[in-house]
TrEMBL record:
Residues 1-19 form the signal peptide. It comes from Zingiber officinale. The keyword Hydrolase does not apply. This is Uncharacterized protein. It comes from the Eukaryota. The keyword ATP-binding does not apply. Keywords: Heme, Iron, Metal-binding, Monooxygenase, Oxidoreductase, Signal. Belongs to the cytochrome P450 family. One of its GO terms (cellular component) is membrane. Its cofactor is heme. GO terms for molecular function: heme binding; iron ion binding; trans-cinnamate 4-monooxygenase activity. GO terms for biological process: lignin metabolic process. It is found in: Membrane. InterPro entries: Cyt_P450 (IPR001128), Cyt_P450_CS (IPR017972).
Length: 527
C-alpha cells in the first residue's frame, strides 16, 4: 500500500500532537483512541520485524515505532509478556532506537559469550550520557582498548581473591558492629536496610579511600547516600524514555536533564573534594616506592600518574563503585533477609546447618564453602530477585546475526536474565523461594561469570567480557551477612504482621524491594 507524502506528514503531525497532549495531561486518552485504529491502517507496510530478516515484533508506526503500543515501562515482566507473543528474540522499534530482547538461554549464550565481541558495546541514552560523561566510566563505555584498560585498573584493587583475603578482617569488624547494634534493637523491629547500608558504605569506602563513617548521622555519610539515591532514582526511571526514543519530544525533557546535570555536578564535586583529592595529597607525600599503597584509590591514582587514564576516568570509577558495587549488593541482602523471614522453615534449616558445621565458631569468609545450604539461599535469592533483571544492556556496533535473524547495527540488546531464571519451562515451581533446588535438581548450577561451566539460565552477574567483576565481592558479602544474622538471631515480622511485603520495584536495570523491610531480631540463646 503506497502512501502520499502529504498524508504521511499529516498523520505524523496528528500522532505527535496527540501523544504530547496525552503525555502531559492536556488531552483525554479517549480522544486518541481513533489513532490506535487509523494509524496502523495507513502504515501497515512499516514493518515490525517478522520479515524473515529481522526478528519478529509488533507493527511499528512512523516516528514513534512501537512506543505508543508499549509505552515507557520496559520492565522485565512486561517484556516476558511480549516474548510469549513474539518469540525468544523479538525487535521493538522505539522511535529512533532499535531494541532486541532475548529470552532464551541459547540465545543469551550467543550475545554474552559466543558473539561477545560483536555484542560487546553499550548503548547510550540521554541520561546515562550525563551520569557517565558519554562513557568515561568502565560500565557504559564502548567495547575496545579504553574499556579493557579501565576494567584492568578497576579489577586489580577491588575484584581479586587477593583483595578479598586482604580485607576479610575488616569485613568481619564491620559486620560484627551490625550484630551488636541489632542486639539493642527495639522490640517493634528495625528497617534493616539502614544498618546494612552503613555497613556496606564503610566496607567499600575503607577499601576505596581508607576512610569510614562513624554513624548514620555522619554528615558525609548522609550526603553520599542522598546523592547516590537521587542518582539511582533519576537514572533508573522509565519516565524519560519517550524523549530518548523520539527526538522531537526531547524539549519536554529539558527540566529533567537539567536536574540530572545539576545533581551529577554536585555529586562528583563531593566525591572529588572529600575523598579523591585527599588521596592525591597522600600519594604526593609518598617517599619513593617503599611506601605501600593503602587503598584502591592509591592504585587508581598511580595509573593516572602513569598516563594510563585521565582525571575524569578516575572520578567515574568512583561513580561506578558507588552505584554498582554498593546499591546492588544491598538490594540482594534485603531480598534474602525478607524471604527468610517469610519462610521460617528455610531460616531454621540454615540455622541448624550453621550450628552443626560451625558450633561456636563465627561465620567467616573461609567457612563459606563448608555451608552448602547458605550458598543455596544466596543463589535462590539471586535467581528469584535478580538485582539486575535485564543485565546491563549490550549493543552491536555493526550489523550482526542472532538466532537466524539480522540485528541492525547499534541495536540495544537486552537479555531478560530474570525470565531465564524464572521460566517454568526450565525450573521447577520457579515462583517459590526454595533454596533446596540448588542442592537437589539444580545441584550443579553455580553463579559464575566465566572460566567454568556456565548455566545460561542463571546469570545474576552476566557472563563473558562485559560481566560484572563485582561477583567476587558480592557473593561472599551476601553469604557472610545472611549467615551471621541467622546464626545470631531469629528473624520475624514486626508485631501484627504475618509476612514481609516483597512487592517489587523495577527500573531500567534494577529490581529492588518496594518497601524496605522492618524485621524483629530476637537473639538466639547459646545451647
Amino acid at each position: 500500500m503506497a502512501i502520499s507524502v502529504s498524508r504521511f506528514a499529516a498523520l505524523t503531525f496528528l500522532a505527535v500532537a496527540s501523544a504530547c497532549l496525552v503525555k502531559f495531561g492536556q488531552l483525554p486518552v479517549a480522544a486518541c483512541i481513533p489513532l490506535v485504529f487509523v494509524l496502523p491502517f495507513f502504515f501497515v507496510t512499516y514493518g515490525g520485524g517478522g520479515d524473515g530478516k529481522t526478528p519478529p515484533g509488533p507493527v511499528a508506526l512512523p516516528v514513534f515505532g512501537n512506543w505508543l503500543q508499549v509505552g515507557n515501562d520496559l520492565n522485565h515482566r512486561n517484556l516476558v509478556g511480549m516474548a510469549k507473543k513474539y518469540g525468544d528474540v523479538f525487535l521493538l522499534r522505539l522511535g529512533v532506537r532499535n531494541l532486541a530482547v532475548v529470552s532464551d538461554p541459547k540465545l543469551a549464550a550467543e550475545v554474552l559469550h559466543t558473539q561477545g565481541v560483536e555484542f560487546g558495546s553499550r548503548p547510550r541514552n540521554l541520561v546515562w550520557d550525563i551520569f557517565t560523561d558519554s562513557g568515561k566510566d568502565m560500565v557504559f563505555t564502548e567495547y575496545g582498548d579504553h574499556w579493557r584498560k579501565m576494567r584492568r585498573i578497576m579489577t586489580m584493587p577491588f575484584f581479586t581473591n587477593k583483595v578479598v583475603a586482604q580485607y576479610r578482617e575488616m569485613w568481619q569488624e564491620e559486620m560484627n558492629a551490625v550484630v551488636e547494634s541489632l542486639r539493642a534493637a527495639p522490640a517493634e523491629g528495625v528497617v534493616v536496610r539502614h544498618r546494612l547500608q552503613l555497613m556496606l558504605y564503610n566496607i567499600m569506602y575503607r577499601m576505596m579511600f581508607d576512610v569510614r563513617f562513624e554513624s548514620a548521622e555522619d554528615p558525609l555519610f548522609q550526603q553520599a547516600t542522598r546523592f547516590n539515591s537521587e542518582r539511582s532514582r533519576l537514572a533508573q526511571s522509565f519516565d524519560y524514555n519517550y524523549g530518548d526514543f523520539i527526538p522531537i519530544l526531547r524539549p519536554f525533557l529539558k527540566g529533567y536533564l537539567e536536574k540530572c546535570r545539576d545533581l551529577q555536578s554536585r555529586r562528583l564535586a563531593f566525591f572529588n573534594d572529600n575523598y579523591v583529592e585527599k588521596r592525591r595529597k597522600v600519594m604526593s607525600a609518598r617517599q619513593g616506592n617503599n611506601d605501600r599503597l593503602r587503598c584502591a584509590m592509591d592504585y587508581i591514582l598511580e595509573a593516572e600518574m602513569n598516563g594510563e587514564i585521565s582525571s575524569d576516568n578516575v572520578i567515574y570509577i568512583v561513580e561506578n563503585i558507588n552505584v554498582a558495587a554498593i546499591e546492588t549488593t544491598l538490594w540482594g541482602m534485603e531480598w534474602a533477609l525478607a524471604e527468610l523471614v517469610n519462610h521460617p522453615s528455610c531460616q531454621n534449616r540454615l540455622r541448624e546447618e550453621l550450628q552443626r558445621v560451625l558450633g561456636e565458631e563465627p561465620v567467616t569468609e573461609t567457612s563459606l564453602p563448608r555451608l552448602p545450604y547458605l550458598q543455596a539461599v544466596v543463589k535462590e535469592t539471586l535467581r528469584l530477585h535478580s538485582p539486575i533483571p535485564l543485565l546491563v544492556p549490550h549493543m552491536n556496533l555493526d550489523a550482526a546475526k542472532l538466532g537466524g535473524y539480522e540485528i541492525p547495527k547499534r541495536t540495544k540488546v537486552i537479555v531478560n536474565a530474570w525470565w531465564l531464571g524464572n521460566n517454568p519451562e526450565w525450573w521447577v515451581r520457579p515462583e517459590e523461594f526454595r533454596p533446596e533446588r540448588f542442592l537437589e535438581e539444580e545441584g550443579e548450577v553455580e553463579a559464575v561469570v566465566g572460566g567454568g561451566k556456565v548455566d545460561f539460565r542463571f546469570l545474576p552477574f552476566g557472563v563473558g567480557r562485559r560481566s560484572c567483576p563485582g561477583i567476587i565481592l558480592a557473593m561472599p558479602l551476601l553469604g557472610l551477612v545472611v549467615g551471621k544474622l541467622v546464626k545470631e538471631f531469629e528473624m520475624v515480622p514486626p508485631p501484627g504482621t504475618e509476612k514481609i511485603d516483597v512487592t517489587e520495584k523495577g527500573g531500567q536495570f534494577s529490581l529492588q524491594i518496594a518497601k524496605h523491610a522492618t524485621i524483629v531480631f530476637c537473639p538466639v540463646l547459646a545451647a
